[in-house]
Structure formats: C-alpha cells, structure tokens
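Many introductory courses stop at the sequence. We go one step further.
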Amino acid sequence: MTIRTMPTRGFARLARLSVLLALLGGVSAAIDADADVASDARATPTPTPTNAMTTTRLSPRLFEKTLDLSAHLSPTASSPPTPFDHAAGYFALNRTRAAEMFYFYFRSRDAAADAPVVLWMTGGPGCSSEIALFYENGPYRILDDLTLAVTEHGWDTVSNLIYVDQPINTGFSYSDDPRDDVHDERVVAEDMLDFLSEFVDAHPELRRVLLTLVPIRPRRRGERRSLRTFAGVSLRPALAFNPDTPRRLSSPTDAFQLHPDVRSYGTPLRGRDFYVTGESYAGHYVPAVSYAAFKAQQSDGVGVGMRLKGLAIGNGLTEPEIQYGAYADYGLGVDVVSKAAAEISKKNYPTCAKMIRKCGGGAGSDGPTRESEARRKLCLAAVEYCSEKVWGPVIKDAGDVNVYDVRKRCVGDLCYDMSNADKFLNQPSVKVSLGVKRNITWEACDGSVHRNMMADWMRDLEPTIPPMLEAGLRVLIYAGEEDFICNWLGNHRWVRAMEWSGKDAFNDARPEPFVVDGVTGGDVTESGNLAFLRVSLAGHMVPMDQPKNAVVMLKRFVAGEPMSGGEWTPNGSSEEKALLRGRKGKGGAPRRGGGGGGVVTL
C-alpha cells in the first residue's frame, strides 16, 4: 500500500553418475548444479527442516523457524495448503549495527521442481508485507475469531513465495539503532540483495539446476568417462558463462559439452526463475531491487543466485511527475471530484512538476542514487507542495471516499479495517510460532519509516526499467481501475512515455480483453516483453479484490504466456453481469462530496 554456502554433496554421487554415463555411452547426463558450487564459507546450512516445528540457524546471519500453523487453523478450515515447509525468519543485515529483517517463506503448493520464486514487497513506505499475506495473495486469511483459513488463490499455488518486511522497522523487522534507518532506494536495494543472496545460499532447493552434458564424440574402446575427474573444475565456469554459445567442459578426454538448449535470455544459468513484485510504494522498491539484481547478474554471472526473469508492479508510484498530473483527470473521469476542484489542482500542477524535476531523477546507470542533504531538501519541498496544492484540492473535495477504491467509503486510518491482523499477529502464541520477540509490536504501517523515506517520494524510478526490457526481462505494470491514489491513468501515461526500443510498437498496440475462464477481467496492452493491464472491478489491492484474476495474471506472467488469455464471449456470463452491477454504487461511496481529511498511501 502507499501512505505508509551450500555443502557439497560429495564425489561419491558423481562417481555413481560417471558409471552410469560409461554404461550409456551416448546418452546425455544431468548433473545437479548445486553439487560443486559451495563457496560461501559463512553459510553452513543444515538440512531442510521437517514439518515439525524446528528452529535453525542457516548461517551466522540467517535464523529461520519452520512453521506449524495447524494450531491456528479454523476448525472448519481445509488442510494446510502445502505439504512443504512454511518458514519465518530473521536476517541480520550486513551494513547495520543492529537491524534484523523479518520474512515469510512459503514453498509452492504444486510441488513443481521448477516452480519460480516470487518476492513480494508491500509499499507504504513502511507498510508490512503481512498485509498482502493475509489480505491479498498469501496462503491464509485471518477470520474474525482470529483463526486462519486456507485461501484458494494464493500466489503460492504458482510460485515459491517470499514476503519481506522492509525497510527496517517495518512490520516485525526491527533495529534500536537510528543509524540503521533507511532513507532512499539505494539502501533499500542493497539490503534486499544482501538478504536474497544469503537466503538462496541457505536454501539449496532454490539454486538447484540440472545442467545437461552431451557427448561430442563416441566413447572410445576402454574409455571410462568419469565426471568425477572434471566436475569440480567444470561446473563452476559452467554456471558463470554466457550460454548464448555452447561451452566445452574441461576433462581428461574433453568429451562433453553443455547441451545448446541449456540457455536463458543471455544471463548465466543458475537457480530458479526469479520475479520481483509489489504494490503501491513498491513502485519504487520493485524497480530499485530488480535493477540492483539485474546489474549484479550482469557483473558476476551469479547475482542473487536465481535467474532474474521479470518484475511486476501493481498500482505503483513509479514516476511521480507524470502520475501527479493524472489526479485531476482521473477524479473527474470517475466523478468523485468537482470540476472546480480539478481546475485548482491542474492550475498548481506546473509548479509541482517543476519542483519534482528539481528534486531530480532517482536512478542513473548504476541504479538508485544516494541522497545529498541539498537534494533531500528539494525533494521534501516538492512533496509538501504537490501534496497540498495538487493532491490536496481533489482529496478534500472527494470527502470520505476511499482513495484506494472509489466505490467505497474510507473506514479507519488506512480506509480498510485490518484490526484482525493487529490482534492475530500480536498474540504471544503467534509470536512464538513465528520466532518473534515478545516485546516487538506488529503494526500495519510504521510512521517513522514513512517519515524517513519522504525525501525519496518524488524520485523517478522509471529509468531503471528500459535497460531491463532491452535485456529481455519481462515487465508487467497492472492497476485496479477503481484506485484513486495510484490510479491506472497515471500509470498508463508513464508506461507510454517510457523511452525504449519497443516504445512505438507498444503505443501502437491495441488493448485486448484480459480474459479468465471466458469472462473479461480488464484490458491489456502488450508488445514484446512489456504489458500494461487495467484490472476491472478492483481497487488499489488487486489480489484482494480479484484474487482469482490476480493469480491467473501471475501464472501467465511467469509462464511467459500472453496476458490476454482466451476468447471472450461478448455480453458475458451471469457471473460477469453480476460483477458489472457491482461497479455501480458498491459500498455506497459518494461520487462527489465536501469535507476534508488527509490520507496516507499504502
């Protein structure tokens, strides 16, 4: 929301494989890439825990607790959603004095050996990713009696799912040293890469890849093709080379090479496919973290130990100059503000845009830049002016409309009642289950983190995206059409304005229906590896409002499929007609009104 080293398996296994190869001669062999890539001495992981609740120090800086959430399940709930381990843990950040970053890890329900890894970050800045876990796309939801029910459309049905509370002091993450506070995206990205690299090293199942070796000549009479004699030499460079051309592996017989089909889009072959996702202020986080992982992958051939394949931003704040200019137009278009209020906002916008430009872009060729004190003052001035003079007139005129979903009224500080999460996560028994200290209080959004990041607010993260598009990463920008604060119109405008080689083709592409089971759930514009999806009947939190459509969206995205889906039946089904009726006056929200009140972003 916006407001707020792996152990070697041993040569015995390789020797057994070498005997098999000797017997099969011309048959290709598959070797676990994790067999000889142990290199980080600081990480000494133990075997993956069983479903019994256990605690494990996976490395000197990574502590993880296996979760047994059965005691918290509703008596009427179905079985736990996956036979694999759920875990929660803490990671001690390298750069800090006392910071511990909290995370959840859910193994994929479908047990696919090649299931991708999806990282989710909630925005704010300062809002906990447990909001998404329990209200949007996680495997559980919290019931009114503070028990858990299994969700049908959790994103763990498609992927291995990681939720992280960041920046530090968000959610269950903590530090008691103010020197550990985070103020810009450079540190956000560095902290996440620090965590991800160690996390993957501690979880061999995420970095295991089958490398296929094929003979390049027939086996000679009496020759024993022993993988043992060359695997330790060859597998490491095999993981670090660019697979655009087959590479011959060193061996006494020089008889094997990598199969030419073992490739990615030009990056090294290592680990699971990896996607960075998030919502709202994660329109800053996702590009920053993705670009840092992308540059690391380009630099050393390893990156975070997984193959970065794409990024997805939902109702994000990414390019503030363009997006602030859309508030008046969007408000008029959905009839929640008056023409007079919109005109005031539009009149003040040129000054706002000028101040945002003085604040400066948030990223260069090396990624997000650090804040100087002079730049920080300019950026804070832009936030103050634009919030008061551009956003202020329209939100005051809109009255008590829910700025995250204009169909509804605003209820509570965050416009949604999330009190069950506060109650559930702050129970002593739940904290024990998660390995959280008793004296740490969970809050949906942390005000101090929000304040610390205010100079980052107006920074433009869009420049990080074109280099990743050009390199072949898939990029999805999606937006629920009922959201005001990070509305689809502003997002659509910056996507169309983005300079990259596919700009003209994307802008010439016609929107197509986003179809799920024959029902249209929005419209999507897609060209090459860029897609923009406007989701119907959804607000700021798309997976909460349209859980089925959201998980189908993710499934198509990580599978490399077209986002539009199948054929749409005009006039729709009874289900579609019911959904469309819900667009009119659902929740009783006024279309225009007086009153005041500020707003935080999630």
